[in-house]
Amino acid sequence: MPPVSLPAIVTPALLSSIRGHPQLPKHSWYFIAGVTLSVINRPDEIPKVFKYAIDHGIGHSDSKPEHDEQLKIARKMREALTKSAAIEGLPKTKLIITDKTINALFALKEQTPEPLQDPPLGYSPTARSVEVYDIPSSQILHRGQTFFDRVYGKISKRVMGQMDRSGTEDLGITARLMYGYLLSNTNVLTAAESSFVLIAGLIPQDVNPQLKGHLKGALNNGATVEEVKAVRNIVIQICEAGGMTKLGDNVLGGWGWRADVANL
After folding, report:
1. pLDDT tens for each residue of 139-194
2. Looking at CB atoms within 10 Å, which of 25, 83, 136, 202 has the fewest?
3. How confident is the model over 20-36, as a mean pLDDT?
4. Res. 100 pLDDT band, cuts 50 70 90
5. Which has the closest alpha carbon to 193: 78, 99, 76?
6. From the CB of residue 77, how many other CB atoms can be counted at a distance below 10 Å?
7. Cβ–Cβ contacts within 10 Å for residue 2, how many?
């Protein structure tokens, strides 16, 4: 049987629309799109976004970026997909590393020119290997707890307590590891950009309880209301281009949202 040919999601019109959104920070649209495509299981579309960004630039004007800017784009895209591993698995399955993230990163690597790759055992822009092997875990976990507290604000202790009392304390431990070693590392993506990754990863999963917390968490991480709403809007736009829709109350199955996507 020949492989199934899926309809394209990433079109010139879609790229122009999300790239030109006036409320989005210019260095965010492409990795938000990449994470969304990963979560809806279309890693084949991610290289289109990446190639467009390194060929046409990230701002409103159309000009090919210099090498350093291209490298910044590549690293932000890789880091966003890496961080999305936390949100693709944990809300529903309590896993961290998911097949979707792996597929997305390999699809991106296949289309990334070698000068824009970070080879193993070479320079790491995130310095995670140093954090794992050379820095006391207590220091990294403390950083993660600080990040978590900032995201959830005055309800952070209640949220973590709920995970600790979920029937297995391992859920709370998983969250602490995820926030410590993955999400709170801001060497490539800022705290606000990391929140954009989480929003992009949650919207396609129809998990409003978690999404509500991270919409507010993005504000706590320094994003503006307009930026957060813009991220929400382009993620929904990409999801709808991929076939997601609002499901009716009487629909037993389908691919979409059971309720309106949470908003600020």
Report:
1. 999 999 999 999 999 999 999 999 889 888 888 999 999 999 999 999 999 999 99
2. 136
3. 94
4. confident
5. 76
6. 27
7. 4
Question: How many H-runs (helices) and E-runs (strands) does the chain carry?
Answer: 12, 2
| Arithmetic mean of pLDDT, 30-58 | 96
Closest to 183 measured CA to CA, from 79, 71, 27: 79
pLDDT at 74 over 90: yes
- Say how far apart CA 46 and CA 179 lie, in whole Å: 25
Measured CA to CA, the distance from residue 20 to residue 259 in angstroms comes to 28
Tokens 């059971």 belong to 258
* Ordered alpha helix ranges (H), 62-190: 67-93, 99-110, 128-133, 137-152, 156-164, 170-177
Q: Which amino acid is at 219?
A: L
CA nearest neighbour of 47 among 15, 86, 83, 3:
15
Global pTM reads 0.92
Report yes or no: 91 and 41 within 8 Å, Cβ to Cβ. Answer: no
The single residue listed with the structure tokens 């829709």 is: 245
Q: How many CA atoms lie within 13 A of 70 on its CB side?
A: 16
